[in-house]
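Q: Could you predict the 3D structure of DBR1 enzyme?
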Amino acid sequence: MKVAVAGGCHGALDKMYETLELLQRRHNVRPDLLLCCGDFQAVRNEADLRCMAVPTKYRHMETFYRYYSGEKKAPVLTVFIGGNHEASNHLQELPYGGWVAPNIYYLGYAGVVRFRGVRIGGISGIFKSHDYRKGHFECPPYNQQTIRSAYHVRNIEVFKLKQLKRPIDIFMSHDWPRSIYHYGNKKQLLKMKSFFRQEVESNTLGSPAASELLHHLKPTYWFSAHLHVKFAAFMQHQTNSKEELPKATKFLALDKCLPHRDFLQIVDIAHDPSAGDSLEYDAEWIAVLKATNSLVNVTQSSWNMPEKNGLHARWDYSATEEAIQEVLEELNHNLQIPCNFTLSAACYDPRKPQKHMQPVHTINPQTTEFCAQFGLTDINARIQQAKEEGSVRGEYEEDEEEEEMDSTGSAEEPSDYNTDNSGLSSINPDEILLDEEGGDEDLSTCSVDPSPDHPPDFSVSFSDIRIMPDSMVVSSDDATDSINEELETSGEGKQVEEKSLNERPLKRMGGNENGNSGIKIKRRNQAIYAAGDEDKPE
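A: Sure. Here are the predicted structure tokens for DBR1 enzyme:
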């Protein structure tokens, strides 16, 4: 089975699918499945744009709404996870996963599905230690804190995934597992991204939670994005006993979806030829969801997951064979995910733009149906109930600390991990600066700039595509396809020049009570969408 894997597409679905169609036309390669590793940006309307954690000038409608409305349909089954630049209000409607458009499926906060016998798992968001132990309490309308914390990974999702015992074939995360760079061409990585050096050498780059999952799940393939560079690694796992067969994971990180970037990869995956072509529930995962349902938390309170330390009566929530069989019987052994997509919000109409449309907290009927079928808690319904009871607020106080700063400056209790990947000592010019437009702007009045009905055309280049060899060895010196020059157009996809730390000033933010200026560094992500955007007048 041929699987196409994409980095963050940032709403450019037309570009992504056109690239796949060109691949088929020129090389007779037709993927059976498309996986996207976050920053998908399923933006339906102007209200969704307000819920995306990017500076105002980057809030463009792009092309997802055409697939949401039914004007277009994804030509290949597409499965994606969330990243850190999403319409969080839309994805929040589907905490357990669901269809965001016909033939486009979101895995939820964490999830596992099956396609042609292949088990595909994933976890959405990025790791921040100061939010890791909180519940999913956020809901629209977001403020400056919750618009960001909404996409932060929580310990309950990691805990659920760690209950899985059966082998995983493919796993996706947005940020990289910490330490994975030690298992690939680290020298080449640092040549392309020199500003990663300090984090790589101190082993603080990436997500410790994802690393924990990597060591526990030991999937055959692990795909990521986020850092906007192509990188491959091969990790041989240690066995726990002499009887256990050796396992290894082939890791691949992909670039963002821009012209002339290596944002898409084709991988051959062994599958069950007798299996159908429908996306299916995973019985073990459903059983784990049922077992851990009592652990659902919708408050800001920090708490640890149950563990074998004498403080918890139960710490093993893995699914027994009996529990898995019960799930199969509940579904009459029909695991096919129903195609029950429905519009849950108005769709953008380029003829009637609504720049002042406000986001609302919505309970999606797909989630309602899923929870009713398996006896699970509807997280959004619980949040609404808690708000009505006054036990949880939808917003933080305005004077709380910005959470994009180093977590060591947070008043939160220590997390399960000593460090997080937000406290960068170096600056990544390939990501956006979240406070570039003024981090304290009022989200209720911020301007929205939808793209015109006919967005600018992208040239499609086969430098965007690689056919993955069995060894998964990737080099920046990979030869590009011979048709590149024929397809490229001048002036498009201009690369942003990399700049090292000493060429970029650190941003100073405020001072302390003693009058001493304190330095707080926020993640800088200037060029996530298009090269040369900074030079354009607004």
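Q: Anything worth pointing out?
A: The CA atoms of residues 429 and 499 lie 7 Å apart.
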